[in-house]
Design goal:
Family: Belongs to the binding-protein-dependent transport system permease family.
Order of helices and strands: HHHHHHHHHHHHHHH
Subcellular location: Cell membrane
Strand content: under 5%
Helix content: over 70%
Keywords: Cell membrane, Membrane, Transmembrane, Transmembrane helix, Transport
Shape: flat
Number of domains: 2
Main location: membrane
InterPro entries: BP-dep_ABC_trans_perm, MetI-like, MetI-like_sf
CATH architecture of the largest domain: Orthogonal Bundle
Number of helices: 15
Radius of gyration: 25 Å
Oligomer: single chain
CATH class of the largest domain: Mainly Alpha
């Protein structure tokens, strides 16, 4: 077994002996970090635990977090009787479609607002941002009437269009901030070498701000994936999304905690997997521009 990555206990003891205040501050910092991490991760652990506990164990008091026989009955019921896989697929189609269209339209729009001298560009940017200030409840009735008239009520396409209209401003403003950080000399050098504006955008700007695009797309995906209110009004039946099915586990007189935990775990899992797949881009994108050169 390699000891290359193991902590040097002797150096730590020497440091603590020679610098007791610094050692105490370090211990407090790491201790506080561990407490915060446990505080934030415990609800997720509890949700996963409830999803694999028998119903009689779930109702025990005090609750059991350890030492129980795990079962998969809640997951089996979720996918066989509740057909949860279909609703999970609906959520993915709506979220992925809305984010994909928003990125295709939003990234060039962000570049235009950042680099081009558009007449009234500041007003256009503020107007785009102002669409995020509208309370969703204030537009529910007009949206429902409009989509009913055009035949898109209770459809995934109608919900995708609404999510696109909401995620597009988010994509534009986040990506615009990343493009603003890039020196224009990079594009000017490319155009001197023979590239036109579109080629400079495609070959120079997009690769450099790809971490920002990934971060903006992921944030927008989470919003669309977790949205409940819009799906409640604009979908129904087989077009429902996962958050609506999770809510159906809570009845008037009782709550099916096992089903609720299983549905919540399955719904969180795709977002976790996507974040792990994009973690390098997300870390780079969320920290880009934090340090001025």
């Amino acid at each position: 077994m390699s000891t290359r990555n193991l902590p040097d206990i002797g150096s730590a003891v020497t440091f603590a002996t020679e610098n007791p205040r610094a050692a105490l501050a370090t211990a407090i910092k790491y201790g506080a970090g561990i407490i915060v991490a446990i505080w934030m991760l415990f609800p997720i652990y509890w949700m996963v635990t409830v999803s694999i506990q028998p119903q009689e164990v779930i109702m025990n008091w005090p609750p059991r977090f350890l030492f129980f026989t795990p079962v998969l009955e809640h997951y089996v019921t979720l996918f066989t009787e509740q057909n949860f896989g279909r609703y999970l697929f609906n959520s993915f189609v709506v979220a992925a479609g809305a984010v994909l269209i928003s990125v295709i339209i939003g990234v060039p729009a962000a570049y235009s607002l950042s680099r081009m001298d558009v007449y009234g560009g500041h007003h256009i940017g503020f107007w785009i941002l102002s669409t995020r200030m509208i309370p969703p409840l204030s537009i529910m009735v007009p949206l429902f009437i409009f989509f009913s008239d055009v035949g898109l009520d209770r459809s995934l396409l109608g919900l995708m269009i609404v999510h696109f209209l909401i995620t597009l401003p988010m994509i534009i403003w986040i990506v615009k901030g990343f493009i603003d950080e890039l020196p224009q000399s990079l594009e000017e050098s490319a155009m001197v070498d023979g590239c036109n504006r579109i080629q400079a955008f495609r070959e120079i700007v997009v690769p450099l701000v790809m971490p920002g695009i990934a971060a903006a797309g992921f944030i927008s995906f989470i919003f669309s994936w977790n949205n409940f209110l819009l799906a409640l009004v604009l979908t129904g039946g087989d077009t429902r999304t996962a958050p609506l099915v999770i809510q159906s586990s809570m009845g008037y007189l009782s709550i099916n905690w096992g089903m609720l935990g299983a549905a919540g775990t399955v719904t969180v899992l795709p977002v976790v997997l996507i974040s792990l797949a994009l973690r390098n881009h997300l870390v780079e994108g969320l920290t880009m521009g934090a340090v001025k050169q």
